[in-house]
Write a structure and sequence with these properties.
By secondary structure, the protein is α/β, with parallel strands linked by helices. The chain contains 13 helices and 12 strands. A 7-stranded mixed sheet has the order 2-8-7-6-5-3-4, sandwiched between helices. Strands 9-10-12 form a 3-stranded antiparallel sheet. A two-stranded parallel sheet has the order 1-11.
Length: about 375
């Protein structure tokens, strides 16, 4: 079976599991304890924090470990919004992950915030000009993702963050799909908050982090003993924290991944578009330089997407209809509808997402499976 759903989750790397194992067994100490066992645990926690900070180019005290991307997005958005004295206005886009949109909805309903959603074009882009027009003196936050998990569009976050900086507005980016694929040095991105989820790059599910600039005032979501710089109380999951740090250490150089896996996905996209006239690529073309190197997503006019997924699995390929967080929903993708795609067409969507070990043979196998699946569906 060929697994092409890496945007949903990735296998845990053996080196990551090996690094985590001692902290699930003999090194069981609580990092908050002051005896020798606890101090060894604290040393491991400090190492993990320093490793993650070095990867992002930030200070260790600006890293808070979480349970994954959803919690990281919640802490960044709700924490900044409720801790900031600037005002009650936030700028985002309707193509964001559901965890971001749900936070914005909550702030609007329960705290009287006003949300400005930037318009996107047919491939999902937002323009710096539109962002500049949306900002105002009372804007508390801009939240725009680095790479879209459904269409693969890469936002020019550095350029957008520069616009926000002109108005001294903090910028948060959901960078969950980026490690190992895109450059993630915070000084180059210019953001003040950034979310990561470990299971997207070889660490276990339930691991994650959020970078929060020390210049921010952030209201914690979880109160208690004051762990994670007071931002996320509760005893840390040390094994998964170490795992996350090791996975970041092992993340492939973005340039290498873009060249290698990007060539595989580009060949697959070209094959699909050439062979199947009812296929339409969602998001930008590979040639644009704005597409995630591992994500290839299409709508197939006249074909039910869920039925196609079943036939693809019967033909030996596992993929998805979009975000795993929305799997099983009968509603059309909010990302695709924001692009102006009709709801019925949205329901024909299928996303193929390749891994770092993708080969030209994987592209050929996926194309053959799609050929078989579509033939069965008539």
């Amino acid at each position: 079976m060929l697994y092409l759903d890496h945007a949903a989750t990735t296998p845990v790397k053996p080196e990551v599991l090996k690094a985590a194992w001692p902290y699930l067994t003999e090194e069981f100490g609580n990092p908050s304890s002051v005896h020798e066992t606890g101090l060894r645990a604290k040393a491991a926690l400090d190492w993990a924090r320093e490793t993650c900070a070095e990867f992002l180019g930030v200070y260790p005290h600006e890293i808070a470990f979480t349970s994954g991307g959803t919690e990281s997005n919640n802490l960044a958005i709700l924490g900044i919004a409720l801790g900031s004295p600037r005002g009650r206005h936030i700028v985002s886009a309707r193509t964001e992950h559901s965890s971001v949109l749900a936070c914005l909805d909550y702030l609007e309903r329960s705290h009287g915030f006003e949300i400005s959603y930037l318009e996107v074009d047919g491939e999902g882009r937002v323009s710096p000009t539109a962002l500049r027009s949306a900002l105002r003196p009372g804007t508390t936050l801009v939240s725009l993702m680095l790479a879209n998990n459904e269409t693969g569009l890469i936002h020019p976050v550095a350029q957008l963050a520069e616009v926000a900086a002109e108005f001294e507005v903090p910028f948060h980016t959901d960078a969950v799909q980026a490690p190992g694929w895109l450059d993630l040095k915070v000084p180059e991105l210019g953001v003040q908050a950034l979310s990561l989820s470990g299971h997207k790059f070889g660490a276990p599910k339930g691991s994650g982090l959020v970078y929060l600039s020390s210049a921010l005032t952030v209201e914690p979501l979880i109160h208690g003993g004051g762990q994670e710089q007071g931002l996320r109380s509760g005893t840390q999951n040390l094994a998964w924290t170490v795992a996350l740090a090791v996975a970041l250490q092992l993340a492939e150089e973005p340039g290498t991944a873009q060249a290698k896996t990007g060539a595989v996905s580009a060949a697959f996209i070209d094959g699909v578009m050439t062979e199947f006239p009812n296929a339409h690529l969602t998001g930008p073309s590979p040639e644009s330089g704005e597409r995630h190197p591992a994500i290839a997503s299409f709508t197939f006019e006249g074909i039910n997407g869920e039925t196609l997924l079943l036939e693809l699995e019967n033909a030996g390929v596992q993929c998805s209809s979009g975000s795993a967080c929305s799997a099983g929903s009968t509603e059309p993708s909010h990302v695709l509808t924001a692009l102006g795609i009709a709801p019925d067409t949205c329901r024909t969507a299928v996303r193929f997402s390749f891994g770092h070990d993708a080969t030209a043979d994987d592209s050929a196998r996926a194309l053959a499976a799609l050929r078989t699946a579509l033939a069965r569906l008539g």
